[in-house]
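To whoever is on call:

I kicked off a structure prediction for a single chain this morning and the downstream step that reads the tokens threw a length-mismatch warning. I double-checked the sequence; it's 285 residues and nothing unusual in it as far as I can see. Pasting both halves so you can look.
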Amino acid sequence: MSAGWIAGDVRARGLAATEAIDVASSVAKTPGLEPAVAVLGQTRWIRDTDSATSVDAAERAVFETLIWQLRVLAGWLPSEGVEVVRSCVAWFEIRNIEDRLAYFAGSPAAIPFELGRLGLISKSLGAAGSAEDIRRLIGASAWGDPGGEDAYAIRMWLRHRWHRRARDASPELRIWADAAAWLFALRERLAGRAGADLIASKPPSLPSSWRWVTAATWSPGDMWRAEERWWAQVRQEGLQLLHEPVGGRGPALGAVTTLAVSARRIATALEIAAGVGGGELDAAG
């Protein structure tokens, strides 16, 4: 047992404890966005209901709450644990970078997610005035040089590096990341896009419980089912980790997983309540 992990594990269990109550199911059963946000406002998942006037704004509020919870958790963990959380939060930094690149292409400016010390370059993105600036920022960080300024090439590079960082962070994340990378690469191949080999050039070696990822013959129309199955299995394994003895990375990683899945399910539930999108709450985990 590591003393450095004990405080973080206790905090992790405290953060994830209320996830036994299925907030997403209650939100999904509410007819309309405004009453759904009101239901969500009675939980810890949204703090400013007045600003959640659209599905996008409400979903963003949920993800901002997730990030805040993970930042709090990271503050209680030893350095190894912080890196585990950082590797998971990297998805939001990728989102920040892609939003900035989209702005250069003519999209409205997006407010970046606040990652604090869990981010690598997010604090500097606002000063970037071009894709060339973005490339310099990425290249000078742990993300590494993407080798070009094309938005798609940067997008693929970030996912490639995210996969490698997650693999290095913990054995559990290595399995989940390998499975996710293969499914993402397969999606790119089925769509005829060029970045698949950078993500995964050959099927990964996975434990028996995950071999469905590489054993199935997936069609373009089936990929959403593969993604939902990935989330469901990660949720199940995360709950098991959450109940491991304190003193190791299990409870902390389990909390990260449980909270992330909950946020994703709530986002899907908001879409269902508002009558937009084609999400299915059961499939979401």
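Update from on-call: the warning came from a stale cache, not from the record. Cleared it. Sanity check on the structure: The longest helix spans residues 79-104.
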